[in-house]
Amino acid sequence: MRWILAGLVVAGLLFWWVTEPPSLNPAALPDHVADSANGELFFHAGSCASCHGEDLAGGLNLHSDFGTFVVPNISPDSDSGIGGWSDLAFVNAMMLGVSPGGRHYYPSFPYTSYTRMKVQDLLDLKAYLDTFQPVSNNPGPHELDFPWNVRRGIGLWKMRYLSQGPVVADTSGSSEIERGRYLVEGAGHCAECHTSRDRFGGLELNQWLAGAANPDGEGRVPNITPHQDGLAAWSESEIAYYLESGFTPDFDTVGGSMVAVQENLARLTDADRKAISAYLKSIPARP
Amino acid sequence: MYRFLLMICTLLFLLPGSQLLAGDSPQEQRHELMEQSKDAAKPVGGMLKGEMEFNAATAMASFESWATVAGEFGKLFPEGTETGYDTEAKKEIWTDRAGFEVELAKFDEAVSRAIAANPQSLDELKAAAGPVFKSCKSCHEAYRVEKE
To answer: Does B41 touch chain A (CB under 8 A)?
Structure first.
């Protein structure tokens, strides 16, 4: 009995130790003059407004198998928003999924992709968020079932699923494909919808962008690898035109949750949309 | 007589539901009108993408084709046509008719403006067709489910 108890205590301590939310070293932040115009591009590439709202005030409910997440206010309001946050706090949230109070965020906030963003681009993004009007709004807590309501447990999940390295290593030395990879795997968080998940909700990297069940219910989120089940028949310029206009090569329209994403991508530069298309045509084709 | 009736019933039963409604069912007409909208969008999109040379008459023919659709489409959603013929119409068309009418009006207005603008260059075409394309998308977003 005593041994079992001791075992439990040791296991508990170990759990507490390995799930300790980390923080970046302040020295990791470069000297950087923030460029809010570049920040605006990443705001659109990241579709922040699709979840946090055009005014950033939050309040949207995201339903999932684990319960309901309520999207927080990220306007520069110092009480209910993120107005008082330091640069370091913001970068910790976006790259490590850790709050200023040292708690883990749920991956319903797609930092699992944003973690691949460059610190400079994140600082620019923060400068852009700072140009918004502060809105006082407290959307309230998530409604999650046990054990998902224990944030500390996310530490274990992150050990397995949070990684900053690129997913598709080979860009054939093309700087265009590299830019596309950066946008798709990072800010664009395309895989969060287009890649299937295992039973713990982690992305199946060996099925990268090969389509997934649609969390909205009907149908599937399509395969966007260059496989015949995916974008094999689409030329690079057709993909770019789709991202710009929302029309498929057959002149049907974009639908579902891709509409908001497409409208955000329409605000990037032609070169960036071309880079995204070049990357999508270069990745391994999967059924 | 009884055998004959039974045979008719069996035949009707064997035919898929969609075929029973074949011909002029509202579901089928809806589908045809949308296919027509798509075919009208192809040359306009081709010009905008630079795959096709600008041609004012072709563009105008597309606008007029959309105008026909805008005039007819709204009449094709009577009660009882919520399903059948693999319709992609969302039930919201029947539960939120007013919202659907707003989308129809947006489409109709964008098309009327495009016709009035009578674009004579690629830039003018872009300005005229943009709002129409936008209205296709926003109506689909709210009132159409895509099926594979």
So the answer is: yes
Q: What is the pLDDT of residues A181-233, one digit of tens each?
A: 999 999 999 999 999 999 888 999 999 999 999 877 667 899 999 999 999 99
| C-beta atoms of A219 and B144 within 8 A | no
Among chain B residues, CA nearest to A255: B141
Q: Do A250 and B41 touch (CB under 8 A)?
A: no
In B, minimum Cα distance to A259 occurs at B141
pLDDT value, residue B148: 56
Please answer whether residues A190 and A39 qualify as being in contact, where contact means their C-beta atoms are separated by less than 8 angstroms.
no
Put simply, whether B91 touches A (Cβ < 8 Å) is: no
**Amino acid identity, residue B54?**
F
β partners of residue A64: A67
Q: Which of A47-56, A138-147, B135-144 is modeled with the greatest confidence? A: A47-56
Could B140 and A241 be called an inter-chain contact, meaning their C-beta atoms sit closer than 8 Å? no
Q: How many CA atoms lie within 13 A of A254 on its CB side?
A: 21
**ipTM of the complex in this document:** 0.72
Domain annotation covers residue B68: yes
* Contact assignment for B38 to A250 by CB distance below 8 Å: yes
Q: Answer whether B48 sits within 8 Å of A245, measured CB to CB.
A: yes
Q: Flag whether B54 is in a domain.
A: yes
Question: Which residues of A fall within a CB distance of 8 Å from B145?
Answer: 218-219, 255
Name the residue among B41, B141, B147 with its Cβ closest to that of A251. Answer: B41
Question: From the CA atom positions of chain B, what is the Rg in Å?
Answer: 19
Counted domains in chain B:
1
Return the SS3 of B88.
coil
**CATH number of domain containing B134:** 1.20.120.10
Position A3, amino acid: W
Q: Which two tokens stand for residue A122?
A: 């994140």
Domain A175-282, architecture per CATH: Orthogonal Bundle (1.10)
What residues make up the domain containing B45? 25-143
Chains A–B, number of C-beta pairs less than 8 Å apart:
39
Helices (H), A1-116: 2-18, 36-45, 48-52, 87-91, 111-114
Q: What percent of chain A has pLDDT over 90?
A: 78
Q: Is A66 helix (H, G, I), strand (E, B) or coil?
A: coil
**What is the overall mean pLDDT for chain A?**
93
Scanning the structure block, which residue is given the tokens 């950033």?
A56
Class of domain A24-161: mainly alpha
pLDDT for residue B14: 39
Chain A residues with at least one Cβ partner in B under 8 Å: 218-220, 237, 241, 245-247, 250-256, 259
**Is B137 touching A (CB cutoff 8 A)?**
yes
